[in-house]
What we know:
Blueprint: E1 7-10, H1 14-23, E2 28-31, H2 37-42, E3 50-53, E4 63-66, E5 69-73, H3 78-82, H4 85-90, H5 92-99, H6 104-109, H7 112-116, H8 129-135, H9 163-169, E6 173-178, E7 181-186, E8 206-213, E9 218-224, E10 235-242, E11 245-251, E12 258-262, H10 267-280, H11 291-310
Parallel strand pairs: 1-3, 2-3
Antiparallel strand pairs: 4-5, 5-8, 6-7, 6-8, 9-10, 10-11, 11-12
Amino acid sequence: MILxxxxxxxxxxxxxxxxxxxxxxxxxxxxxxxTDLVPLLKLRxxxxxxxxxxxxxxxxKTISRHGGWLAIGANVTLFDLKNDPAVKEYFPALYESLxxxxxxxxxxxxxxxxxxxxxxxxxxxxxxxxxxxxxxFCFKMGGKTCNVVPNAKTCFANYCSDNAPAxxxxxxxARLSGxxxxxxIKLEKIFNGAGRRPFALxxxxxxxxxxxxxxxxxxxxxxxxxxxxxxxxxxxVAVSVADGKVRACVGGIGPEPRVYDLKSANDxxxxxxADKAYTDARPASNTVLSAAYRKKMVPVLLxxxxxxxxxxxx
Length: 314
Ligand SMILES: Cc1cc2nc3c(=O)[nH]c(=O)nc-3n(C[C@H](O)[C@H](O)[C@H](O)COP(=O)(O)OP(=O)(O)OC[C@H]3O[C@@H](n4cnc5c(N)ncnc54)[C@H](O)[C@@H]3O)c2cc1C
Ligand code: SF4
């Protein structure tokens, strides 16, 4: 499938990216590794006039430690992040989620910023224009219906980043820069729960850094997928324990990750969180596994991840 026509601009600074965004009145898309965006362009699911390549911005490529935080540039590749000594030593849930992300070839190209900001997915959406036209446009394509859930009022596409749930369990923050200035927010606040447009970013905002409190944690990531060699999560559950506090986050099911702060790691508290996660999960029949099976696997994976962490896990 060939790419549509667009103007390609490579920038060296955040300021010039934002200036281009303003100049082209928002008809742009930012590009990092392109592993999510390029397929969307080919399928005509994204049709920008200009693609602004952020890969030339040096400050987005660094990992540094200061003031008790690990600061990760948005353009750091998943592979480099996985192999950073701090990640292995301090953040096992993130190490495991990075390791479980697709395959090493993709990890060497895909960035952590692009991974977090990847679009939600649905078997009825990630298709060619011809296929979608024949089927009829759904909510996410500007239509008036969902092609999966009859009489639905919203889109049930799935957010499939392996790493955002792990980062959320580590209380990570997102640093954003845009036409309105800079701000830092909790990572979970970038999601708005709307499958149609799943991110609560201001127009033109660039994710510049992810900040994680630099303290040792215990953690694990459990992923349901069809092929272990390379596959999106059909459910993904991260668990981290920091300062005795247990935090779990469920992704891969519905348009946003869901976070659970457990009262403790005892059986009662774990069962309570697992039951809540089961109730909250609202899968639709829009992946290669059935909705009922994916829902059942949410508490299973949550309990498995906590058990792994508490019974001598990393
Ligand atoms: C075959 C295949 C398998 C995959 N498997 C997995 C998997 O198992 N797990 C998983 O988590 N993901 C998976 N992915 C999804 C995703 O492509 C990768 O995770 C990758 O990390 C995305 O990063 P990227 O740099 O290529 O993003 P890009 O494609 O460059 O960008 C993704 C989105 O983020 C926006 N963007 C990028 N950087 C910024 C920024 N700094 N500020 C603002 N917006 C930005 C882009 O405009 C675009 O909308 C898979 C993709 C493919 C093609
Ligand atoms: S869940 Fe429904 S509205 Fe959302 S992308 Fe799939 S078919 Fe479209």
